[in-house]
Amino acid sequence: MGEKQLVELQKLPVEKRLSAVQKMELLGGEPDGQDHGKRFKGDPPNHPAVQVDWYDAWSYCRWRGGRLPTEQEWEKAASWSPKLKRKRVYPWGDAFAVKLCNSGSLEDGFEKTCPVDEFSGGVSAYGCYNMAANVWEICASRLGQDASTRVLRGGGWFGDTEKQCVTSYRWGMGPAAAIGNVGFRLARDSNP
Ligand SMILES: [Ca+2]
Prior knowledge:
Bound molecules: calcium ion
Number of strands: 6
Strand order of the largest sheet: 5-4-3-6
Distance between the termini: 43 Å
CATH architecture: Alpha-Beta Complex
CATH superfamily: paralog of FGE (formylglycine-generating enzyme)
Oligomer: single chain
CATH topology: paralog of FGE (formylglycine-generating enzyme)
C-alpha cells in the first residue's frame, strides 16, 4: 500500500477507522516506529503495541471480541491478592524490585519496551504479566470529571520509576494521543 492510500486511511472518520492491527496489516511489513508504526523499529512482534490512541485501542479490543478494562478492573488484576485478601503495592508484593519489571531503569536489561511475557517473577496474583511498567495501559475509564482525558495505569519504560509502578498510581491522556510508552491490554468477560 502506497503513501497516498495511507493518507486516505487516516482521513477516515473515527467510526470507520480500522483497528490498529488491521491498519498495520494493510500497510504491510514491519511497522517503522515513526508516524504509523506500532512497535519500535527492530523490535520483535512479541513486544507491546505502542503509539496507539484510545480509539484504536478500543476498536482493536472489540474486533478481538474483548474490550478495554475499566480502571477498577485493571487495578484489581494488578494489585488484589485473593490469598492475602488485600491489595499489594506492586503486582508481585509490597516492595519495589527493579529487576521484576521494565521501568525507566536500565538495570532491568531493557532500554525501551520488553516482550509482553518478560519478568515471570513479577506477575500479579491473577497471573498478569507486566502490570507494572513496560508500557502505560489505556483503560476505558475517564480521568475524574475531565471528559477529554482517559485513564492510563501501570507506568512505562520511559523514565518511570517505582512511584509510577505502584498499582494505584493514575495518569491520563487525551483519547487522540498516541505515544511511544503507552499501549493497552485486552479484557474479556469470563463465562458465568
Ligand atoms: Ca528499563
